[in-house]
Amino acid sequence: MSKYLPEGELWRTPENRLALSSPERLAAAAAAGAVLEAFVPKCDKDYRLRPDLGVMPGVIAREEGALGVREGLTREIALITRVGKPVQFVVTGFSADEQGAPVAVCSRRLAQERCRRDYLDRLVPGDVLPAVVTHMEGFGAFCDVGAGVPALLPVDRISVSRISHPADRLQVGQKLRTVLAGRDASGRLTLSLRELLGTWEENAAEIEVGETLTGAVRSVEPYGVFVELRPNLAGLAEHTPGVEPGQACVVYVKSMNPERMKIKLNLISAGGPAPQPPLRYFFTGDHMDRFRYSPEPCKKVVETVFG
């Protein structure tokens, strides 16, 4: 496991607690260049983050608050939104406040640079990495993949079953296992989740014809209603008036056809908001070269090739 974890994962570790337990140990951690983590109760009017290190206050200058701030590529909102949350940083020195009390001078940017250089830049497409959801937009979920470095999980890569918004599947603060899909020319990472949530056969193996199940209405078309049975598995029921996307429903499984990846359903009832289904990771390894979702007999090949 990488030593660079998403923010919030480091501050309760024994090593971090020890480094923040006394001024002497904090100085030793600073001399060693250790990445530490502490809670931020305040961002002042000059956009300086003020982490509470316990043994003394800390200060992170605006341009040291995140990668891209000093170049004008990252806005101050990236600093303000860290208030009330833990941040990772490197202690670069010590100073004194107006009363002469010691203050730790810290850099979050430096911790992020090291995370990119020593960890993220060494990853290749298909590598599995932990991530934490930080915020969501209609087009995808932004995730912390280490020391607060952001990566994008596009909405169409969250699951095979289509969703209209990442909030249909995820929550802010949720811990994920993701797979690296690629990176752009600036080094920004794109993640994927659907390849870890199982093939059609793996998900369908848990369902039998004749069963009555709960599901979620994902889309309503003139020819039928698509119902999600698992994050990576959906079936089709006949069109039913009054049914809307996002509703919870109860369905009866009429038939299953692996050669066409088809599941026919009878819609028994629908109403109320659908709860978020739990994520089940079928793939537990550290790297995958390819992922084939469709069964071997199926003429339609649905797969992801990494690299």
Structure in words:
The protein is mostly beta strands. It has helices at 14-19, 23-32, 77-80, 108-118, 200-204, and strands at residues 35-40, 58-60, 85-96, 102-107, 128-137, 140-144, 150-154, 175-183, 189-192, 212-221, 224-230, 233-237, 247-257, 262-273, 290-292, 303-305. The chain folds into 3 domains: 14-117, OB fold (Dihydrolipoamide Acetyltransferase, E2P) (Beta Barrel), CATH 2.40.50.140; 122-196, Nucleic acid-binding proteins (OB fold (Dihydrolipoamide Acetyltransferase, E2P)), CATH 2.40.50.140; 200-273, Nucleic acid-binding proteins (OB fold (Dihydrolipoamide Acetyltransferase, E2P), Beta Barrel). The protein contains 5 helices and 16 strands. Strand 6 (140-144) and strand 7 form a beta hairpin. It is elongated, with a radius of gyration of 23 Å. The two termini are 22 Å apart. The model has no long low-confidence stretch (mean pLDDT 95).
Strand order of the largest sheet: 5-6-7-9-8
What's the total number of strands?
16
Task: Indicate the CATH architecture of the largest domain.
Answer: Beta Barrel
User: What is the CATH topology of the largest domain?
Assistant: OB fold (Dihydrolipoamide Acetyltransferase, E2P)
CATH class of the largest domain: Mainly Beta
